[in-house]
Amino acid sequence: MSDPDSSFGTERAFFLKKLRLSMLIPGIIVFLMWLVKICELLFELDLARL
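-> structure tokens emitted (50 positions)
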């Protein structure tokens, strides 16, 4: 018979991987927004009107 703890572990690992991947794209978007804001401040640009 299969061990219920091992199936719980694999299911938990699957959902943790899914959670990390679902946070990747929004994290990249936020990072790019910060990068643009820092460039605006450093170079005194106004990129809001683009």
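Residues 4-43 form the longest helix (40 residues).
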